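JOB MANIFEST
job_type = single_chain_structure
chain_count = 1
residues = 293
[input]
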Amino acid sequence: MSDQAVQIIARGPRAEAEAAAAAVDADALLEGATYSILEEDEDKGLWRIDAYPTDGDDADRLRTILGGFKALTVTTEVLADADWLAMALSGLPPVRAGRFFVYGVHDRGRTSPNAVNLRIEAGAAFGTGHHGTTVGCLIAFDRLLKAERFAKVLDVGAGTGVLAIAAMKTGSRLAAGTDIDRISVRISNENAEVNGVRARFVHAAGLNHPAIRAGKPYDLVFANILARPLVSLAQDITRATRPGGVIILSGLLRTQERFVRAAYLARGFRLEARIRRDAWSALVLRRGPRTAS
């Protein structure tokens, strides 16, 4: 097939949809695949996966994996040659998550004086605040802020930068972020400027960038990525977190909680809370004082 932009949609029962999403996560050739999973019709028990392949090979592989789950109906839609993501976002309502109000430029007249307002423009980056993983992180962060503050914050897989920007707007003196996608890094830095904060985002595949090393250890680490990278980065995230510090992990399905949690419990973290939105989970863990690095 050609590399024309397409959206692959799979619909079916929750168990099949979650199993299919886990199969996509487990495929090493689709490690960077972008997809979402959500409940489409509660009365009918209908769940939906929306996948956005980057090329024809990814599209073929996604169709093969999703098509292997017989209870799912898989369709492909060709996307118009336009900034379809920006167009879709223009119709999305703002999001309230605890004290945070996430909005786009089209909703700038709806901000609240009683909220921490975050203007986030997505462009081609992930993390508008609408996805269950991002909402879960913001809700978890809001609850933590009721009891403590975090001077230094790291955002791994920053996307639009919304989480690091939220930290800066609630009193953190330093917030840094990384992303493997250069476009996301540019958008994150632009969003920081729009929001009037000095968060810094860099292009990096891990946590070895000099700008990230300079801030260690961090009081709070966000990692809103995927389950497999969360596990593979467990040692690096542990080393980046101060003893007694907190990490908020997301981008994982409820069915992947145990897999991810085990990697961090083994490194001296303890689970403090979990936030569940649709099929997604966010885990809040605190590093113990004697965690080996």
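[summary]
Residues 53 and 101 are 30 Å apart (CA to CA).
The mean pLDDT is 85.
exit_status = 0
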